[in-house]
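_Per-residue structure_
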Amino acid sequence: MAITPPPVVLDELEARVAALRPAWPALRWTGRAAWHVTLAFLGEVGEPAAGELGPRLERAAHRHPSLDLCIAGAGAFPGPGRARVLWTGISGDRRALEALARSVAAGARRAGAPPPDEGRRFRPHLTLARCREPADVGRLVAALAGYAGAPWTAAEIHLICSRPGDPGSPPRYETLGTWPLQAPRPSVHPRP
């Protein structure tokens, strides 16, 4: 389950990351088809849970308002000195985003598809690259530390399935369902 930034935001990020890729050929760089903010990772979902998942995700989405977000900064898991994953972060309505992630994970659990990473601290990010062996990506993290993309509004969540690609190629991502978040409430201005 994920949020996907709009194309203009991904274009901007692609322009920034494209300039860094040539100097780091040993990394397995992800592309825009893989760029999303994971709310809850599910792993394999069996048939009974799959049938229950859609209605649960729809309910979770309808309980949360649209979110104002921005792609910003960078980091690495587990850390820049021995990284396995290079990522860019998410700023903006982080508390609301975390509440949405908890709600989506609870819906998945009620559907019978508990997230295997449940209980871990939620760290919203987009994965930019993976390392075959632990690598020092400190210079990349520093190069992206000041990055701040255009703000955008997340208005829906997606159920995304990853399928293995051909040998040596990245996985393919397929959107199986999309549910809107609550529309923002219009601001009420007192009459003069």
User: Anything to note?
Assistant: Helices lie at 7-18, 47-62, 94-111, 138-144. The mean pLDDT is 89. Strands lie at 2-3, 28-29, 37-38, 67-77, 83-92, 125-135, 152-154, 156-163, 172-180.
